[in-house]
Design brief:
The chain is α+β, with helices and mostly antiparallel strands. It contains 7 helices and 5 strands, in the order βαααβαβαββαα. The chain has a 5-stranded antiparallel sheet. Helix 1 packs across helix 7 and helix 5 runs antiparallel to helix 7. It starts with 20 loop residues before the first strand and ends with a helix. The relative contact order is 0.19.
Length: 190
């Protein structure tokens, strides 16, 4: 690890509390899980949301209305972006049909506002990430993410009750999201 001798720099290594990484496993086909995740995240409705939020909206009320129009009473975590990581493994291995691995960036800009207000350094983990990975033998799917309460908390052991509560709610919302996706994928496969 590089060290700094610059007197104007203070470097800190923050150790995460356990547990901080969650993995769900299901025998469901990965393509089915991905389709249900996209639906749950309102992927089709959020095209260009970041540009809309940053360039067009002029007030908090417009911002809240826009997010509300997307979620429309459904799941409140929305799609931001995704990267098909399996494409990278194709280049390395030459396997034209590697196990699917998709990295998602997702969240809710309204939650992000509140969390960043309480801890600006949480921006390093916003939007949250989630990975959907097909088993190597294609026998099922793993869904994994860092607990927001672990990676967005105040560094240096500072305690903030309001931030803790916000992050615990976000932890629950992520687990609820994953379970809704698995349940709806299982129902469609039955």
């Amino acid at each position: 690890m590089a060290s700094t001798t610059n007197p104007n720099v203070k470097k800190s290594l923050i150790t995460l509390p356990a547990p901080h990484f969650v993995v769900f496993e299901t025998p469901l086909p990965t393509a089915t899980v991905l389709a249900h995740l996209d639906k749950e995240l309102h992927r089709d409705e959020v095209h260009g949301i970041i540009d809309t939020v940053t360039k067009e909206l002029k007030s908090q009320e417009e911002f809240e209305a826009k997010i509300g129009s997307i979620t429309n009473g459904g799941g409140d975590i929305i799609y931001m972006n995704s990267i098909p990581m399996h494409s990278l493994t194709t280049l390395r291995t030459g396997n034209p049909s590697p196990p699917l691995i998709v990295h998602y960036m997702l969240g809710n800009p309204l939650y992000a506002q509140r969390i960043i207000k309480l801890n600006p350094l949480a921006g390093a983990s916003i939007p949250p990430r989630l990975v959907v990975a097909e088993n190597e033998d294609k026998s099922g799917t793993r869904i994994a993410y860092n607990l927001p309460s672990a990676v967005m908390r105040h560094p240096f052991g500072e305690e903030d009750e309001e931030l803790r509560k916000e992050l615990e709610v976000l932890d629950e919302r992520f687990e609820d999201l994953v379970m809704r996706v698995i349940d709806s994928a299982a129902a469609s496969a039955a």
